[in-house]
Amino acid sequence: MSDSKTIAVLIPCHNEAATIGKVVDDFRKALPEARIYVFDNCSTDQTAQIAADHGATVIFEPRQGKGFVVDAMLSRVDADVYIMVDGDDTYPADHARKLLAPVLAGKADMVIGTRLAEHGDKSFRPLHVLGNRLIRSLINTIFGVKLTDILSGYRAFNRNVVHRVPIVSGGFEVETELTIHSLYYRLKLLETPVPYGVRPSGSESKLHTFRDGARVLWKLFNLARAFKPLTFFGIVSLLLFVLGVLAGIPPITDYATTGKVPHFPLAILATGLMILSAGSAFLGIILHAMNWRFKELHNVLVRDKR
User: Which residue ranges does UniProt annotate as crossing the membrane (predicted)?
Assistant: First the structure.
């Protein structure tokens, strides 16, 4: 199935000495034809040395943050198909071919290993599942899809993703960025459930619940505004319109019954809200048209690279 295509396993790591050796060995066993790359992100332990001892190609990324590592991965590794997996031994290597199969068959550009169907009691910190569901609901609503796990770090993808998806995030919001960019550029995404394990003893999570959660939501807000301006500014316009109507009811009622406008400040507020509502709707239409033209240009430029 994969004899004619090169496969690269990409493993981002920061202080994963307790697990990286096993992860490299497991993926070497599951995908003996693949080349395994460990991207060491400012580790202060023996992660890089252990990875090299187990036969992985180690590449150092001095900019600390998972987003920077993913950017380096897509820029520096050339292959036909890629597997990206965290180095904490929570994702099963024996499901790698299951993720790769649709990509190798040309049925998907990216396959996401979803974790929420099968996981240990302590696989997720408190609030993480709730946060994942919130982000999933927002993305599904905005983009009209039915994804189940937006934040999974276990993915298989092809060159279309590498060529089309720009990475500008520096931290853990990079999975959200990968997903949204792929949807925006109309790449084919599939999901397949994978068991999600518990971090082994000695391995510590680098994810900060509230700080990284806020960064993910802020990234989602910015990407929705950039990629779906008509929807984003349309909603803003609608809210302003409703507020304008509510503010305008007393002045209009007064004028209709007495011919006077004692609630003059409300009349001014209502007028201002209606002007802002119209301006927001107009801005959304203009940005939508510009966005479409930029997407056309992007598609032409990407086509020329193939």
Answer: 230-252, 264-287
Let me know if residue 2 belongs to a domain. Answer: no
Nearest to 271 by CA among 302, 238, 242, 244: 244
Strand order in the sheet with 189-193: 57-60, 35-40, 7-13, 81-84, 155-158, 110-114, 189-193
Please report the pLDDT score of residue 70 as a whole number: 94
- pLDDT-based confidence at residue 256 (cuts at 50, 70, 90): confident
**Given 193, 227, 261, which residue is the final one in a domain?**
227
Q: Position 131: which residue type?
A: G
Least confident of 118-127, 214-223, 232-241: 118-127
Instruction: Looking at the structure, tell me whether residues 296 and 205 fall in a common domain.
Output: no
**DSSP per-residue letters across 25-47:** HHHHHH-TTSEEEEEE-S-SSSH
Residue showing tokens 């993305």: 139
- What is the count of structural domains for the chain? 2
- What pLDDT shows up at residue 144? 87
35: β partners? 8
In angstroms, the CA 135 to CA 140 distance is 8
